[in-house]
């Protein structure tokens, strides 16, 4: 067995704080077996790995590759594990700051949090990133970097809840498993860090309130913080304060950035350093200006600095005067863009130039140290330079036109990518001009994944800052991708703002679609507040404006609500009305979805032949469209029909096929559904131990997905299986868990669990 797996399992146990005796009772595994698993003498069943992770509240999925490697037995060479590394480039000419670097590295090996403070441009980020790269070998499980935009012009600081969502996603936690409350996210973040050795750089922090929920708890991970403020309220954080560079360090840095000997022994060096304020950022800009002028001496540079304004802004402005018109325009427009960074294509759209011209201009600005390229092909600016750029752009009244071009680019490219990935519904989404082409669906998905944060930020910004049409378009276009890949939590703010924008515009068609999508995203996370009223409102509004597709979606949503309430008659009525409308507008995917719903209604009513016909039609529809996730859902529905008919062996085969369809699609809800079905079928076949394993795995998947209905089903399945094994305490524990979920989500299965607990 891989020693890496044993080490990770020990970390999980430490994070949960449970004794072997406690684990023996919870997992129904002997303490001697647990000891062998934790010391690497044996490979545990996957259900034990999942159960152990559940006791600590951590995600088991990162352990799956190690477990599978252990099951295959020893192999030549070390085990290969994939870790997340988001650190920006480490500067190759890092110079000076040796005392401060030593202080950070020493503190990092003794403390959990190091807080680096200093004025803007003093080199805090460069030091933190350089130190993090030096620490990578000691913290191999993850190296993360997050800019919290505490002092970024034109951007609000990142809220702690959103920062936690980003960090948890970086550790591989699916969005559906990330809780809503900040306190719960912070607890999950601490739990995830506790089983890893990770180094995390939290950059550009506004204040202690922003960063306190992001700090680690137990375990070995460390956090490096940078801020313009001294964060004296963080208690155990080890402070490292940066002043401007001393004369010798400033000279060394300037010489390294210049790259030649012109700064050596020049009487003008002291004046150049003084006029640059001994600030690393400003020294780098001044050196870049001189580097491209071989004929200049240091006296020439000093003369130019002497003629300009004194101070940081003056030196930076001087560097801008040396740009040609195209470079200067690109520089100032970059300061306007919302989002994390810009790709070359986005920058080309922003400046209305060709992609090749944009790439050349951006490379020129990188060479001049006026733009950063921490990730290949993606560009952003230091806050001081961004402030300068924004001011220059606003003086020229360039903001409205430039940002409209950028938002147009995002809308068109998103539409092109989404239509390539989801062609069956393209005619039902807003028609916009084509954007940059994508050769294959995989390229479109890669673009959407890479730009997702920028797209969501741009859509929200558009809604709030006067581009409501773009907000509505982005939200409507992106829905199939965001919903299909379970990016619900991060996207909900976009849909709330876009819905407000549609109402502000009087765009009733947009309101219909966005309210349908808003309801769907909330329902995926078990939130049904006002769902009936919203669905009826959107149905009535769709009818009023003649939007047949929007009306069908609302009817299907109402049918789902009645199904959850066990009102089969009204559910079937709504589904049949929706089916007729979906067929009328040629919505193939939705037709297959509703046929699947009708099959379940007929099956619960005992009309099994009718149920199977509907489900077979749905299966053929999903196969024709090429949606394996849909096929998996219908296979699970067929399994349910077989269970109702008392045919558990056939049900098991359907659920196994469903599981195969869902695996590899990053759709844990589907896997949880299939595993729960397999557990029920196994129990009916008398294989109760297998049932426990299946339901445990389903619970892990449902927690990942943030899917309360399937969490409840997994707890219920475990309760019934444990009771059959005579394990009444475990049965009561899981029945109580199921009851909590059912009560919280208003599901009628709560009555079943009350009866179970009373029995």
From TrEMBL:
SMART domains xref list: HTH_XRE (SM00530), TPR (SM00028)
Pfam families named among the record's database cross-references: HTH_31 (PF13560), NB-ARC (PF00931), TPR_12 (PF13424)
Residue span, HTH cro/C1-type domain: 9-63
Domain of life: Bacteria
Record-given protein name: Tetratricopeptide repeat protein
């Amino acid at each position: 067995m891989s020693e890496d797996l044993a080490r990770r399992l020990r970390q999980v146990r430490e994070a949960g704080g449970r004794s072997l005796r406690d684990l023996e009772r919870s997992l129904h595994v002997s303490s001697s077996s647990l000891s062998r698993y934790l010391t690497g003498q044996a490979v545990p069943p996957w259900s034990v790995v999942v159960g152990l992770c559940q006791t600590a509240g951590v995600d088991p999925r990162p352990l799956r590759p190690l477990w599978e490697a252990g099951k295959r037995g020893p192999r030549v060479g070390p085990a290969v594990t994939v870790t997340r590394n988001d650190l920006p480039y480490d500067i190759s000419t890092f110079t000076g700051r040796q005392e401060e670097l030593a202080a950070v590295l020493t503190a990092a090996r003794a403390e959990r949090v190091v807080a680096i403070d200093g004025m803007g441009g003093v080199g805090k980020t460069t030091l933190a990133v350089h130190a993090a790269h030096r620490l990578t070998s000691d913290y191999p499980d993850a190296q993360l970097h997050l800019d919290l935009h505490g002092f970024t012009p034109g951007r609000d600081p990142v809220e702690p809840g959103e920062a936690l969502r980003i960090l948890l996603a970086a550790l591989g936690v699916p969005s559906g498993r990330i809780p809503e409350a900040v306190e719960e996210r912070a607890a999950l973040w601490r739990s995830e860090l506790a089983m890893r050795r990770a180094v995390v750089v939290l950059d550009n922090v506004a204040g202690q309130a922003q960063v306190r929920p992001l700090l680690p708890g137990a375990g070995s991970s460390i956090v490096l913080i940078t801020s313009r403020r001294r964060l004296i309220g963080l208690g155990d954080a080890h402070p490292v304060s940066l002043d401007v560079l001393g004369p010798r360090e400033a000279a060394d840095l300037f010489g390294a950035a210049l790259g030649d000997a012109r700064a050596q022994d020049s009487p003008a060096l002291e004046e150049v350093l003084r006029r640059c304020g001994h600030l690393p950022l400003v020294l780098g800009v001044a050196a870049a200006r001189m580097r491209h002028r071989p004929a200049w001496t240091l006296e020439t540079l000093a003369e130019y600095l002497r003629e300009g304004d004194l101070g940081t802004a003056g030196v930076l402005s001087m560097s801008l005067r040396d740009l040609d018109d195209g470079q200067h325009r690109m520089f100032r427009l970059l300061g306007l863009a919302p989002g994390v960074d810009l790709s070359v294509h986005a920058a080309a759209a922003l400046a209305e130039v060709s992609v090749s011209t944009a790439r050349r201009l951006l490379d020129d600005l990188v060479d001049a140290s006026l733009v950063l390229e921490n990730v290949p092909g993606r560009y952003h600016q230091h806050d001081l330079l961004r402030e300068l750029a924004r001011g220059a752009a606003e003086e020229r009244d360039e903001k409205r036109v430039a940002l409209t071009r950028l938002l147009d680019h995002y809308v068109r490219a998103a539409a092109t990518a989404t239509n390539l990935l989801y062609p069956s519904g393209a005619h039902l989404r807003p028609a916009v001009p084509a954007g940059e082409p994508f050769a294959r669906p995989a390229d479109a998905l890669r673009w959407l994944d890479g730009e997702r944060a920028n797209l969501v930020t741009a859509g929200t910004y558009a809604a709030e800052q006067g581009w409501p049409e773009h907000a509505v378009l982005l939200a409507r276009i992106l829905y199939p991708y965001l919903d299909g890949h379970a990016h619900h939590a991060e996207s909900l703010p976009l849909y709330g703002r876009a819905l407000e924008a549609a109402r502000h515009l009087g765009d009733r068609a947009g309101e219909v679609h966005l309210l349908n999508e808003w309801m769907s995203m909330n329902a995926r996370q078990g939130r049904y507040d006002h769902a009936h009223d919203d669905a009826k409102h959107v149905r009535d509004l769709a009818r009023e404006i003649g939007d047949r597709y929007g009306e069908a979606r609302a009817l299907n949503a109402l049918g789902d609500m009645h199904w959850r309430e066990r009102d089969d008659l009204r559910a079937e009525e709504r589904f049949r009305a929706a089916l007729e409308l979906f067929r009328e507008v040629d919505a193939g995917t939705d037709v297959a979805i509703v046929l699947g719903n009708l099959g379940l209604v007929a099956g619960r009513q005992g009309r099994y032949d009718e149920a199977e016909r509907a489900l077979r039609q749905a299966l053929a529809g999903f196969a024709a469209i090429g949606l394996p996730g849909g096929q998996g859902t219908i296979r699970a529905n067929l399994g349910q029909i077989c269970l109702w008919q008392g045919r558990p062996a056939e049900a098991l085969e359907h659920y196994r096929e469903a599981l195969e369809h869902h695996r590899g699609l990053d759709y844990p809800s589907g896997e949880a559904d299939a595993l729960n079905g397999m557990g029920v079928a196994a129990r009916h076949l008398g294989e109760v131990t297998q049932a426990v394993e299946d339901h445990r795995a389903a619970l892990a998947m449902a927690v990942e997905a943030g899917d309360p209905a399937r969490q409840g089903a997994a707890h219920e399945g475990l309760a019934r299986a444990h009771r059959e094994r005579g394990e009444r305490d475990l049965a009561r524990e899981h029945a109580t868990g199921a009851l909590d979920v059912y009560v919280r989500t208003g599901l009628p299965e709560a009555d079943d669990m009350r009866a179970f607990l009373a029995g």
